[in-house]
Design a protein that fits this description.
The protein is of the alpha+beta class. It has helices at about 50-55, 115-130, 155-170, 205-210, 220-235, 250-265; strands at about 5, 10, 15, 20-25, 25, 30, 35, 40, 50, 60, 65-70, 75, 110, 135, 140-145, 175-180, 200, 270, 275-280, 290-295, 305-310. Helix 3 runs parallel beside helix 5 and helix 4 packs across helix 5.
């Protein structure tokens, strides 16, 4: 902690020396070395020391607030504390740094024309995690996620929560629009699960997918659409440059592929990226089971889920 790997060399006509050593803590204070004529100003976690407040090495500037490393406490409150009234303004990482990360403290936001859709989003998300993960939505639409106390997540559920937390802790503010089967906006029409172009998701359609880990899941769809929009809004909409993404089709393929990969980590059913097929990988002597699936719809053309057919190994005839 507070260590710097420093390489130096001395050069003349006959000699070049390149030893490597560590500048480390000495008697509780970071040893100082002169680098290019300036005192090295960084220490714990690579953060810059602010020696003017409490003396040498006793205050670190994390950007959003200052830390007293002697107490392990913040000097100031969380700059976004008003968004989390249920938590202490002096806390960080949801008081659980082993699970949660917050490198930039940015946000995922959802918007909806009908306030009831915020409640539906929370309900669909909680159900998709088997009532083990909840979300809170502030007045400005900022979403936060947390595990319900006294619950134990499966590996698949933990993967899903980690994916959502990865989005909320990224430096990009990601915005998604909520719809359901009753939404009248023109943008809502034709959205099967989610729309790459508009960033909209249909909550009724996501709920219809179900929660069988051996098939596609609502949890996987929420993760997929959130990750897809994160990739789109970070690398494409905000002027990011990714080689080859010079048209909408290429951009969609890029973000969709990443969304599918994240989705597959939240369920036992591994989707193929483009074809309507998937596989459940066998363990031990059990064979892999390959499926073909298709959309199903009701009489009002509302999406009602997927129908699966085993294509390999061939079902035995009775």
């Amino acid at each position: 902690m507070g260590a710097l790997k420093l390489k130096y060399y001395q050069k003349n006509e006959d000699l070049e020396i390149s030893p490597v050593f560590l500048v480390s803590h000495l008697k509780g204070n970071t040893a100082l070395r002169e680098i290019y004529g300036k005192t090295y100003a960084y220490g714990f976690n690579g953060q810059e020391r602010d020696d003017e407040i409490s003396g040498s090495g006793n205050s670190y500037d994390f950007g959003s607030r200052l830390l007293d490393p002697r107490l392990g406490k913040w000097f100031t409150i969380d700059p976004q504390a008003e968004k989390y009234p249920y938590a202490s303004p002096y806390s960080s990482f949801g008081n659980n740094p082993l699970i949660f990360i917050d490198p930039e403290g940015e946000t995922l936001k959802v918007v909806a024309s009908d306030p009831a859709l915020y409640l539906k989003y929370q309900s669909v998300l909680k159900t998709s995690f088997n009532n083990k993960v909840e979300s809170k939505i502030s007045e400005d639409g900022t979403v936060t996620f947390h595990q319900v106390p006294n619950t134990k997540l499966t590996e698949l559920e933990q993967n899903g929560l980690n994916a959502l937390l990865e989005v909320t802790s990224s430096p990009t503010e990601v915005t998604m629009t909520l719809y359901d089967n009753n939404s009248q906006e023109s943008e809502a029409k034709g959205i099967r699960i989610g729309s790459f172009k508009s960033g909209g998701i249909n909550l009724d359609h996501i709920a219809a997918v179900g929660n069988d880990d051996n098939r596609q899941t609502s949890r996987g769809k929420i993760v997929h659409e959130t990750i897809e929009q994160w990739m789109k809004q970070e690398y494409i909409d905000n002027g990011g440059e990714v080689e080859g993404l010079d048209n909408e089709a290429a951009a969609y393929d890029f973000t969709h592929r990443i969304g599918v990969n994240y989705e597959n980590e939240t369920q036992n059913f591994y989707r193929d990226e483009k074809r309507n097929t998937g596989v459940i990988f066998g363990t031990g002597d059990e064979p892999d089971i390959h499926f073909r699936f298709r959309d199903t719809y009701d009489e009002n053309s509302n999406f009602t889920g997927f129908e699966y057919e085993i294509i390999d190994p061939k079902p035995q005839e009775k």
